[in-house]
Amino acid sequence: MEKKIIKTDAAPAPIGPYNQAVQFGNMLFVSGQIALDPKDGTLFQGDIAKETEIVMNNLKGILNEAGMDFSHVIKTSIFLMDMGKFSTVNEVYATYFTGNYPARETVQVAGLPRGVQVEISVIAAK
């Protein structure tokens, strides 16, 4: 099996030496997404709910490019600057799934790229 690089304009271009996602067989490994507008690279900061929505929509764009959607997600990793905002992030996150939720960890971190409040990555499979 070869790895296949997934690239879409529906999510922001990488800001470092990595790809939006890599598919290997039926597995898709999606890099962490932050609240960057895929159209112009504008960073949204402020409201954690809006930040999370942008992140989830970026993930959706990458999943769709690989022929998948959130029903294919088997694992998510959520990185938060403030665990006190977990419930707000969780409310937005939950709207993207319909039952059979993926495995997940949520951790508070000391810092995230560009000073954002939340970063989320996923692993999906067909």
Q: Which homologous superfamily in CATH is the superfamily?
A: RutC-like
Radius of gyration: 14 Å
Beta content comes to 25-35%
Strand order of the largest sheet: 1-2-3-6-4-5
Compute the separation of the termini in Å. 15 Å
- Major sheet: 6 strands, mixed
> Strand tally, please?
6
- CATH C-level category: Alpha Beta
Q: Which whole number gives the mean pLDDT?
A: 96
Principal-axis shape equals: globular
Can you offer a commentary on this structure?
It comes from Rurimicrobium arvi. Belongs to the RutC family. Pfam families: Ribonuc_L-PSP. This is RidA family protein. With about 130 residues, this protein is of the alpha+beta class. The protein has one domain: RutC-like (60s Ribosomal Protein L30, Chain: A). Helices cover about 20% and strands about 30% of the residues. It contains 2 helices and 6 strands, in the order E-E-E-H-E-H-E-E. Strands 1-2-3-6-4-5 form a 6-stranded mixed β-sheet, covered by helices on one side. It is globular and about 40 Å long.
